[in-house]
Structures are given as C-alpha cells and as structure tokens.
Design a protein that fits this description.
heterodimer, A: 113 residues, mainly beta, B: mainly beta, 5-stranded antiparallel beta sheet
C-alpha cells in the first residue's frame, strides 16, 4: 500500500510560471485535502474535496486551483507562481470527513524565485 | 486561522523522561487529533480523542481532553531519541468542517 503519493518532491519555479502538483491515494478514501506548511505557521488548508466531483476553498485558496480528477487523484495548480507561494505542500486524505484521521503524503517542497 | 495552539513551542528532554505537550483550542469540537512530523517528512496520525472521551491510551501515548477548558494534553512516557519530532494537535469541529492544525511543539529527546 503506497498510501498518499505526491509528485514532484522538489520544484523550483520562476515568478509567473505555472505548475501542477499531483496527488494520488490508493486507500479508496472519499475526502482529499491540500495544505501548505510555512515556518512558524503550522499547516493551513488551501482546498479540499469532500467527495469525487466536489471541491471547496479552505483558509488560503488565493492563487491556487484544484481538480478532483477521480476518486484517487486530486491536483493543485499554481497558474502564475509568486514568491509568497514558496512553501511545503502536503496532500492528505481520509475515508470520512466526519471524524477520521488523515493520511498525509510526504510533501512537495516548492521554491518560487 | 489557527484553532489549536500547542504549548510549549519547544521541549528538550533526556531519553527515559516523560514529555508532555498541551493544546488549547477556541470552539466546540467533534474530536481532537495528534500528529507527529519527523523533519522533512509528512505528518503521521497518532491518536484521536472524541469530545465525549476524557482520556485515551495508545502504547506509550496518553491523551487527555478537557472540553470545559478547551484543552488537551499529549503525554509520551519513557521517551526515546526516535521520538524527536514536531507534534501537532488538530481539531475537527464536526459537521462539514475540516481539520484545523496548531503550530506544533518541537520535541528533542537526547540520548
């Protein structure tokens, strides 16, 4: 069981470039999430998908878009990267949004120069 | 906005000692969860305690929850160097909410 797989693990972008962070889970989980982690800030929710076909904004959605491609995959897109988006991005999933523990991927470390 | 706030921000102990971390939160919750993050890695779910529970154990972990004080504590007994990590509390307010994480406690366990 791979759990939650994120690609790429590292990425350097120039300001204004776009990219998509990929996330896939093989646990048949319904809900998936994208968080960013910055020093001293803990984890902040960017977007989430309660089930296939639905997506909702989290605490810090500006500058991002998401796609729940199917039950397994949930991607995060930066259309025009900014230095403020330099962060570590984590994807997570859970079987049930109401009351379950999350399974996290290993993260994508993104630097925007 | 941060719902849970951990205390202390950093904790340094010797192997064999107990480590206690606290978490305070602001609103009513459905459950509270604790996660561990080793340096450069993803978060790992440790334990979940529901709002109608007061204490829960899992191996060397003991979690308490006081909903009247809106606080929780995580006790790691007989700490090992491998317990060195950051520990986060996360609250689930129930319904259609999502987990909200605190800023974490960095635990250093020295051999």
């Amino acid at each position: 069981n791979a759990g939650v797989t994120q690609t790429p693990k590292f990425q350097v972008l120039k300001t204004g470039q776009s990219m998509t962070l990929q996330c896939a889970q093989d646990m048949n989980h319904n809900s998936m999430y994208w968080y960013r982690q910055d020093p001293g800030m803990g984890l902040r929710l960017i977007y989430y998908s309660a089930s296939e076909g639905t997506t909702d904004k989290g605490e810090v959605p500006n500058g991002y878009n998401v796609s729940r491609l199917n039950k397994r995959e949930f991607s995060l897109r930066l259309e025009s990267a900014a230095p403020s988006q330099t962060s570590v991005y984590f994807c997570a999933s859970t079987t049930d949004r109401a009351g379950g523990g999350y399974t996290f991927g290993s993260g994508t470390r993104l630097t925007v120069v | 906005s941060q719902q849970g706030e951990e205390d202390p921000q950093a904790l340094s102990i010797q192997e064999g000692e107990n480590a206690t971390m606290n978490c305070s939160y602001k609103t009513s919750i459905n459950n509270l969860q604790w996660y561990r993050q080793n340096s450069g890695r993803g978060l790992v779910h440790l334990i979940l305690i529901r709002s109608n529970e007061r204490e829960k154990h899992s191996g060397r972990l003991r979690v308490t929850l006081d909903t009247s004080k809106k606080s929780s504590s995580l006790l790691i007994t007989a700490s090992r160097a491998a317990d060195t990590a950051s520990y986060f509390c996360a609250t689930d307010a129930g319904g259609y909410s999502t987990l909200t994480f605190g800023k974490g406690t960095m635990l250093l366990v020295s051999p």
